[in-house]
Amino acid sequence: MLWFRRILEELGYKRENITIKDTNINGYKGKKVRISFPNGTLYIANIIDYNGNIYFVSQEGLPEYQNEL
Fold first, then answer.
1. Which domains are delineated in the chain?
2. How many CB atoms lie within 10 A of CB 36?
3. What three-state secondary structure class fits 49?
4. More confident position, 7 or 2
C-alpha cells in the first residue's frame, strides 16, 4: 500500500493526514485508508479482497457522525 500513499502525497495530501492500517470487517481482512482533511472531515475507505473480488466500502463526513454513517 506504499504506492497508494505515494499517489496521495503526489496529489498534495500530507503524510501526517494519511493512515493505512489492516482491518477486519465481519471476518473479512483488508486495508483501511483514512484521510483527515483541514476542514475537520474524514474520508475512510475499507478495501477487502475476497475470492479474487475487490470490495470497497467508504464513508466521508465529520468524525462525530461516523458511527451513524
1. 2-65 (3.10.450)
2. 17
3. strand
4. 7
